[in-house]
Specification:
12-stranded antiparallel β-sheet; 1 helix; mainly beta; single chain; elongated; 477 residues
Length: 477
Amino acid sequence: MLPIKNILMLILVAALGVGIYGCEANDSDDSVVTTPNNPNPNNPDDQDNDGIPDDEDNCPAFANNDQRDQDNDGIGDACDDDIDGDGVPNDPDNCPWVSNTDQTDTDDDGLGDACDDNTDTDGDGIDDDSDNCPLVVNHSQADSDMDGIGDACDDDRDGDGIPNDDDNCPFVANNDQVDTDGDGTGDACEDDTDGDGVLDPEDNCVFVPNPDQEDLDGDNVGDICDDDDDGDGTNDGNDECPTVAGPPENQGCPVDNDTDTDGDGVPDDLDNCPNTPNADQLDSDGDGIGDVCDDDGFTCNATSTYQPLTTPDYEASGNSLGFCLGCGVSEAGSLVDGNDASFATINVGLAAVYGGAEIRATAVDAANDFTGVNRIGMVISDPASALLNLSLLGDFLTLRFYNDGEEVDDATVGGGLLGLELLGLSLAGDQRFLSAEITDETPAFDEIQLDYAGALNANGSLRVHRVCAGNDPVAVP
């Protein structure tokens, strides 16, 4: 009989042999699963326990109750190796959430351009959103024409409409491209515009070559471009002595006697008022006597600046205006009789609301219409009166122009809102020419009329001597 110890040993060996045999049998059968793969044994239909059944879950083994699927490929982002579906796995993808197959990263910051909010394409330290040349390095951001495109990438830097390659001043606007000296650099950006060897800041004729810089009158304008070389006030084209200074009254030539009694700069021999200063030598009526010393009043005759309009080419008439007692015109025909000693008189007895009188000159036929003149008017004077002359709210002198009976224009040439003349002390007793300028815009006319009227006027009168027309004197250049 075997000892009990030996029996127990045999039983242990037998049990070990059966166990080894069982393991070999399981390894040989691939269909046998020894341990089930279910982290949630209490709910086998939702193995990741995210509340979404496995047959609806786009990541059944990874909890993702939002079911987000960036590339819509049916695989949830939580378990998708290529979330954006661009063919680049998530780990090496520089924009894992934005599709960018080319993986472009211009600024080499590890973020692809497709998802980089601070892209600096040209690497000049300025983000593309702020860079006026995002593809060309330009640290200064210079923009000469302020068009929002930096000079470094602007085809027309100065904005003058001329491409840089064709522009003779690419940084200075000059669409005319003027190049006076023909050196290929436009005048607008040229240091020596005329190419005479004298830089513009020192050149007394910037646009005309004059290397000698001659300047006869010392006015800093070179003779070659100076309209008045001798500086005497007479342009060279009208100056009979262009290189010797002389008064304009002597056509720019010097005079033998330069005595100037009145000190107005005009020698006595040429002065139309030698004893009264009048540097402008104004002689409105062209009688050779300056206005400031002309005691004869305004001259209107066949040889003066302005000529009288007389019969038989013109006829005169007059009438009262508005509400007026004792108003009218006497001796109207004297206006055109050619006699300097005669005159017509406009009389205003008592005018109320608006009243007065008018006198007119009319061309007898179309051949005498008022043409070829630039000024026309009437010569008037105020008579001495022994009575009080009172005018309130207007004492107006108005020239009116008519053509075939229709008024075409008018001009208020004298008068005021309050006038008072007492006991014959005239405020303007000398003859004066009340006139209007005729321009190209003035309509054609065949009749001129002078109104003397006011809103309230008593005991007024006005002498009208002549109607005159002509052309204003042309000042000597």
